[in-house]
Amino acid sequence: MEKWRAGRRFLRYSSTIDPRFNPNSQKPIFNSAFGNYEHHKETEKWNFHHCFRFLTSNRAPAPPLGTSMEKGIIGNAVRFQFRCFGSAAVQRNPSFSMLNSDDINYFKGILGDKNVIQDEDRLLTANTDWMNKYRGSSKLLLLPRSTEEVSQILNYCNSRSLAVVPQGGNTGLVGGSVPVYDEVIINVGLMNSVISFDKVSGILVCEAGCILENLITFLDTQGFVMPLDLGAKGSCQIGGNVSTNAGGLRLVRYGSLHGNILGIEAVLANGDVLDMLGTLRKDNTGYDLKHLFIGSEGSLGIVTKVSILTPPKLSSVNLAFLACKDYFSCQKLLVEAKRKLGEILSAFEFLDNVAMDLALNHLEGVRNPLPPSLHNFYVLIETTGSNESSDKEKLEAFLLHAMEVGLISDGALSQDINQASSFWRLREGLPEALQKAGAVYKYDLSIPVEKMYDLVEEMRTRLGAPTKVVAYGHLGDGNLHLNISAPQYDEKILAQIEPFVYEWTSKHRGSISAEHGLGLMKANEIFYSKSKNTVQLMSSIKKLLDPNGILNPYKVLPHSLST
Amino acid sequence: MKIMVAIKRVVDYAVKIRVKPDKTGVETQNVKMSMNPFCEIALEEALRIKESGVASEVVAVSMGPAQCVDTLRTGLAMGADRGIHVEATEALYPLSVAKLLRALVEVEKPGLLILGKQAIDDDCNQTGQMVAGLLNWPQGTFASKALDVLVTLAINDEKMEFNLLMPFGLVKVNWQQHRGIHSELQKICSDSVVLDKEKQALTVDREVDGGLETLCLDLPAVITTDLRLNQPRYATLPNIMKAKSKVIKKFTLKDLNVEIKPDFEVVQVTEPPKRKAGVMVSSVDELIDKLKNEAHVI
Asked: Where in this chain does the record put each FAD-binding PCMH-type domain (chain A) (predicted)?
């Protein structure tokens, strides 16, 4: 402690500007349909060239469609995927047509010249995922402005057997939102208006392209909150959130989107519009088909509108950043928090010391809330309630008791919103920190809480240096984000991780995808978490709704079943 | 020496301000209230001065309704030793606050009074200057940088130089507090560093247009703190626990014998005009036309 004090005195003037007053330090909000464009520019520098060198050299000029040149790219793409992140090589489905100039003219007829994008730079962004890990070679990006336009596009694509990939903010982590080959990209980012909001029931109806953070801001002025919140909120779109059944930070309080989405309007592969845009909390009339579109990652239809049940905004939010000496204490703290903070508990997140070290080293303007040294585990507990003083008193009493009995070794309680934001920044900024640190293998697992950290430790002994096994996640939901950070992508490392991580998870009856989805990355791994019969039925549903298989091909379902 | 710090309870910096429908003021019902960020910086600086061994006690003062006690609790959890709450339900403007502070200074007799340079709610930036005037104390406003003292030491004939950062440049060093330095070095330091120990003065770097101005003030003095001075600490659980047993003394206006006479009246509070949405122009000609005929700037 004393050492720290002295050290602080010498060091403290190194950061001169308090981040709270620096407008540039605010979390970026990207409003364009290509929300993460700037992010790409930034991340491109560090691994783009490393991973994509040969692809980049083939990028310009655009090769004539359907020539051998194109096949060359495809061949590379397959090898590249195999080499870099181990998704089993998948062949382009030969039953899909190649795009021709008639197609382009048809789309221009529907959407106008402006919303039919063939510009190389914009396509590069839309073809590449957030992590620069997956990259397709689509030649066309369509920006429909209405459900009718989406319907016309799909109707045409279905009749022509043109494969499509629906895209929202393109913030997915499993390669689900970018083309694998030359699929036409349909981005609904221009469909971004709020259709209605009922202040009595809190039911919001909006178009699929609304950016999550904009909805959060809109609801804030109405005195309500979104039932989901996640790190990518500045870019991700609600249509994508629904299609991937995104989880996030508030799930422990408000439950999954299966509970909060009251209705959906979706366009099927043949262009039929399915109006299930109900705004009722209770509606037991037949099969509740909207659930098919929540979490099916755009493989059954394109979500165009949603109605969401939003809870009222409660005025009193408190956030504690806590340190625990071991994983067992974190677990016990969770049990206690559920019991003692029950109705006001709104988030329970954890990160380990490796994650904290990474955040402190790679995020700008952050500081260790509990100096001087690192603790083994950190837990964030957020409470949301209606009474400022009683909530705070309750939380303080809970924390002080937990400290007395040794569950927490240190902690800080945010005193204002800025402090709360800086605590959240450490947890929410972790994906970004991992990106900056080098190559990263990401796994998103649901594992029984008591077993969760065993996997992390086993992985550490398995991999050793120079990889770093970084663990954080939604402890309250039993969701571990296991990240293996390495200096560069390496087949040997990957072979050490997969299929071990999936087998381990399967053995403990966990899920190999808690909230990220399967996408391209884990389509073939579905059997680790779902039985053969279940997958078979999924495949039948897919064939029924999308007989030509044009919607988001090569993803979600195993390739053996989908072709 | 005792340091008194004034802290104000304001609408949280991150909250979007809304004007009441009847235009009498800003909406504060059901709005998150926090300590004024500049006051937080003032308190942090006081705590650092205390930790450097120059001051013995930090007293936090807040004025206003009963909820100010919450803000004082935050101050105590950061590390202030005691709290004083001046209970007042009426609106307090800078001159009234300055008079109340003067009355409290007479009770507490601090050697240093530190305030934030302004509160983010009314942005007055007057209280510190007024109280200095009322007390007839020297003032260092907009303090923004601690003094950098270059200390040269000779250890075993080897010359070492290092920078010693002092809060406000209070010219007194208690080496016992600098445990990070090797004990051997401490011994030498305590003998060989000669700083004006008993001069009872402090140096302040203050932000002025186009640069910094360094002032040397005799104590007692009034300081107001600017943004870049420090980064306030968090309230940790052990300190929150300790704060539970700290005392908050309550004063009324009557106790302090200060009469609040509103010398001005707020007629109306209105929101600034909303910024109009931008338009996309499709050609240079259209842009020039708009600049000429609509904006009238060219």
From this structure: 134-313
Put simply, whether B247 touches A (Cβ < 8 Å) is no
Angle (deg, nearest 10), helices A430-437 and A353-362: 70
Closest Cα in chain A to B33: A416
Count residue pairs from A and B with Cβ separation < 8 A: 106
Residue of B120, B234, B274 to mutate, testing the A interface (most A Cβ within 10 Å of its Cβ): B234
CA distances from A516 to A6, A295, A306, A445, A479 (A): 45, 9, 20, 9, 11
CA–CA separation, A187 and A209 (whole Å):
8
Q: Which H or E run contains B115? A: strand B112-116
- Shortest distance, CA A540 to any CA of chain B (angstroms): 48
Cβ contact (<8 Å) for B179 and A418?
no
Reported ipTM: 0.77
**Cβ-contact A254, A186 below 8 angstroms:** no
Query: Both tokens of residue B221?
Result: 């003095």
What is the pLDDT of chain A when averaged over all its residues?
84
Choose the CATH number for A316-508 among 3.40.50.800, 2.160.20.10, 3.40.50.1820, 3.30.70.2190: 3.30.70.2190
For residue B60, give the 3-state DSSP assignment.
strand
Check which CATH number belongs to the domain holding B49 and give it: 3.40.50.620
CB A137 within 8 Å of CB A72: no
pLDDT in tens, A27-82: 333 333 333 333 333 333 333 333 333 333 333 333 333 333 333 333 333 333 43
Contact A10 B177 (CB under 8 A): no
Average pLDDT estimate for B107-118: 93
* The pLDDT of residue A238: 96
Residue B63 has pLDDT above 80, yes or no: yes
Among A280, A257, A282, A119, which Cα is nearest to A185's? A119
Residues of B in contact with A31 (CB under 8 A): none
> Distance from A417 to chain B by nearest Cα, in Å?
6
pTM summary value: 0.77
* Grouped pLDDT means (10 residues each) for chain A, 563 residues: 35 35 38 37 36 36 37 38 48 92 95 93 92 90 96 96 95 93 95 95 96 94 91 92 91 92 96 94 92 96 97 91 94 93 92 94 92 92 90 92 92 93 93 91 92 93 91 92 92 91 93 92 92 94 96 93 69
Query: Is B237 within 8 Å of A403 when comparing Cβ atoms?
Result: yes
What is the residue type of A358? Answer: L
Residue (of B146, B130, B113) closest to B220 by Cα position: B113
What number of helices (H) and strands (E) belong to chain B? 8, 14
Domain count, chain B: 1
- Give the per-residue pLDDT at B168: 53
Shortest distance, CA A424 to any CA of chain B (angstroms): 14
| pLDDT for the residue numbered B167 | 52
CATH value of A101-187 in 3.40.50.800, 3.50.50.60, 3.30.43.10, 3.40.50.620: 3.30.43.10
**Interface residue B66 vs chain A (CB under 8 A):** no
Burial class (CB in 10 A: 0-12, 13-18, 19+), A392: middle
Asked whether residue B111 is domain-assigned, the answer is yes
